[in-house]
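Board notes (copied after class):
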Amino acid sequence: MKIMVINPNESQAMTAMIEKTCAAYLSPDTQLYVRYGGAGMNSIEGFYDGALATPGVLRHIEYGEKDGINAYIIACADDTGLDAGREIATGPVVGIGQVAMHAASMLGAQFSLLTAQRKSIHVLKSNARRYGFANQCAGVHALDIPVLDLEADDADLNEAISQHAQHIVHTDAAEVLVLGCAGLSRYRKQLEVYLNLPVVDGLAVAITFAEGLFKAGLSTSKANTYRRAAR
């Protein structure tokens, strides 16, 4: 099986972290192809960034179709270009935001989402409602930290993130924490220990979901919505 993981931004450090995280959960017989951006942005923060990044995501999927890619993962919790990608791909296209919420819904009665910037709160709230998780999503919260700052290996930052996460799950009475930014993936294990509850990293879950859909012989329906228009 061939999986392409697409990081919509241009950050080399973020792309390397995404590749390392995905590789840790990959089956031995799966080939991983990691691609990044194309729109010249180092991070995706809000609707405008997402709109600019979408064409790059779609170009990678177009190339992937020619190279025999079996499934795609969009490595941004906003699910940048997800619906459009499903329209042009033959195999499944998995967004780490959507798949993380699905996983969280199976692990607890309600979950909280933690993201980097306030600009992403409405995007993630809107996605949660659209995906059918309005009742289970207890809250969406931001660290007020630029996405690229999450790459720093800083003890004070680690502690601040852990304390903030503890506060929001307590306030929301959440039973699961969803990481609403790919840059937070590196903090999953420390947060799980600190909070003593499941912490869902969309990158890890997306790999297993993409492999599972392919192995089950499932793909995106082309009956109507995701059927590519004739040109």
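Comment from the instructor: The helical segments are 12-25, 47-66, 82-88, 96-105, 121-130, 155-172, 188-195, 202-215. The mean pLDDT is 92.
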